[in-house]
Design a protein that fits this description.
Structural class: mainly alpha
Distance between the termini: 31 Å
Largest sheet: none
Number of domains: 1
Strand content: under 5%
Shape: globular
Length: 160
């Protein structure tokens, strides 16, 4: 708790994440996650962008997610997914109540049909090279929204 009080970014991220997804203290959890984001914690920024998208602040979340994708690249996105998956596996997300009541985001790519040929390359969720085959930023955001939901629901059991 001392690290949280001293605003260590990783401690704020982990504690805020547990508050939000485990203990259902969503307001305080989100504030800690936002603070970790302000302190440049990449995983917190990734999670906060997805929380915004799922809780009705879609425009704000998409903008943050796009900035995150552009700044950390494929390797960073894969690392964020692994961290999220590991936290889910470690029982940090015992309460799916939050996700069960999240509305489905309305984000979609206007050129989806043109981009669907790349969807077969999306099988490698933890493969940086597979991520590089997707060039459309909107498609990347849609993918992260779907990956987040799948991991949070405990449906993604693929191991790396």
């Amino acid at each position: 708790m001392k690290c949280v009080e001293n605003e260590h970014p990783e401690a704020l991220f982990e504690f805020g994440f547990r508050q939000y997804f485990n203990y259902m203290v969503v307001d305080q959890g989100l504030k800690r996650l936002e603070r970790a984001t302000a302190l440049q914690n990449t995983e917190a920024t990734y999670i906060v962008s997805l929380i915004y998208i799922y809780t009705g602040e879609e425009e704000k979340g998409v903008k943050l997610l796009e900035n995150t994708i552009n700044s950390i690249g494929s390797a960073g996105i894969v690392q964020c997914r692994r961290k999220l998956r590991d936290m889910e596996k470690s029982n940090w997300m015992r309460n799916n109540f939050v996700v069960d009541y999240m509305p489905q985001p309305h984000l979609f790519c206007k050129q989806k049909l043109q981009h669907e040929k790349n969807l077969s390359a999306w099988a490698g969720l933890y493969d940086e090279n597979a991520e590089n085959t997707i060039s459309c930023l909107t498609c990347k955001c849609v993918r992260e929204i779907n990956v987040f939901y799948t991991i949070v629901k405990g449906l993604l059991i693929r191991h790396v």
